[in-house]
Specification:
Helix content: 25-40%
Number of helices: 3
Radius of gyration: 22 Å
Distance between the termini: 14 Å
Largest sheet: 6 strands, antiparallel
């Protein structure tokens, strides 16, 4: 595992947090895969493959944020909207309104999203509670 983009943050002064309490606070935000109509989902995943969301070693913590994103190119949606708008114009004899085009775009996005490809990413986070660093 290599860090590509490091962002350093200094933790606020105060009492040193405990790993157990931090893991309890992470538990409600466990990663859930995208449902059919969700364009994106984020949540904590185990960084080492076991069931623990926080890996601790010598007062250093490692956490991982998992992200799933559905890839639906706007050009595909735009092309389908144009095609359906032309069909509507041919049937009704006049161009669809802007509101109708927006509604068409939403309908088409809802139809195509379940068939879209998914991209998975993992972002690692290293926490040094003694030194007050979050990387």
């Amino acid at each position: 595992m290599f860090f590509r983009n490091l962002q350093l943050f200094r933790l606020a002064p105060g009492p040193e947090p405990s790993a157990e309490k931090f893991q309890e606070q992470m538990a409600p935000f466990v990663f859930q895969p995208c449902s059919a109509l969700m364009p994106e989902s984020r949540g904590w995943i185990p960084p080492r493959g076991d069931e623990r969301l926080l890996y601790t070693l010598n007062q250093h913590w490692l956490a991982a944020l998992g992200t799933e994103q559905k890839l639906l190119p706007s050009s595909v949606v735009r092309q389908e909207v144009q095609q359906r708008a032309a069909d509507l114009e041919a049937r009704s004899g006049f161009k669809p309104s802007r509101k109708r085009l927006r509604d068409l775009k939403d309908e088409i996005t809802d139809e195509l999203l379940p068939r879209a490809f998914s991209r998975y990413r993992t972002t690692f986070c290293w926490i040094d509670p003694a030194g007050r660093w979050l990387v």
